[in-house]
Amino acid sequence: MKKMNKINSAILLGAGFGTRMKPLSNITPKPLIEVCGKPQIRYIFDTIVDAGIENIFVNTHYLSDKMADYFKDHDATLIFENEALETGGGVKNALNHLGDIFVVANTDSIVISDKQNFINKMIQKFDDSMDGLLLLIDKEKASNYTGTGDLDVEENGNVVRNSNGKYVFCGVQILRKSCFYDSPDGAFSLNLIYDKLQKKGRLKTIIHTGNWYHISTPQDVDIVNKKGKL
Fold first, then answer.
1. Positive or negative torsion for Cα 168, 178, 174, 144
2. For residue 17, what pLDDT band results from cuts at 50, 70 and 90?
3. Hey, which residues does 110 pair with through a beta bridge?
4. CATH of the domain at 105
5. Domain of 120, in residue numbers
6. CB under 8 Å to 222, separation ≥6 — which residues?
7. Coil, helix or strand for 169?
8. What are the φ and ψ backbone dihedral angles of 84, each rounded to 5 degrees?
9. For residues 180 and 43, what is the distance between their CA atoms, to the nearest angstrom?
10. 3-class state of residue 48 by DSSP
11. In a domain, 22, yes or no
12. How far apart are CA 100 and CA 36, in angstroms?
């Protein structure tokens, strides 16, 4: 019988420099650049709040004073990094604040739920058969995305890397704290964690049925803003 897990913490990755988003990111941290009327980090933040997760953390480094000023009016705790730790290092740096199982989300894309909150869907699916659960979308349904897919899914539900795969990672996942126990100190990518879990058959997926918008450049922002509302 599958064991249900209580998940009540999340970390949003907001420490990046937003290099491809220049010149917009010269004075505004990428997570706070507005898309259709609100900072793009708010889309995932609001979804996590709506899913009932109470302990939300945001890591920050670049233009951290502006991140702190924004979040003083929102129920989240900022974790400042003295140096940029990349995705994996940023999560590891926050482990003392997180539960045994937690949500991790990028803030450089926008994920929109369909009929059911996609975070709740992920929580309902996560069980003892996995250490990591990635939210993927069919590359043909990925808005603003022009690259090749990067992942495929085997019949048993295991995620495998494929440079021309059918699916694209949406930037949202659930991970166990134990995934990081033998990880390096300092900066490293979450890809290191994924590779380890893939080899063990402990990296699973859920396919997103709502919308996903790739937000990487000012041109991407303009394209989505023309929609008026997401």
1. negative
2. very high
3. 213
4. 3.90.550.10
5. 9-225
6. none
7. strand
8. -65, 125
9. 27
10. helix
11. yes
12. 35
Q: How many domains, the chain? A: 1
Q: Is the pLDDT of residue 164 over 50?
A: yes
Residue 21 lies in a domain: yes
Phi, psi of 116 (to 5 degrees): -125, 140
8 A C-beta contact, residue 215 and residue 110: yes
> Token pair of 230, please?
């997401």
Read off the pTM.
0.94
Which tokens is 173 given? 């996942």
Dig out the tokens for 8 from the structure. Answer: 């009540």
Positions of E strands within the chain = 9-13, 34-35, 38-39, 55-60, 77-80, 101-106, 109-112, 132-138, 142-143, 149-153, 159-165, 167-176, 203-207, 211-214
SS3 133: strand
**Vertex 52 angle, CA 46 and 58, to 5°:** 50
* 230 in any annotated domain: no
3-state secondary structure of 5: coil
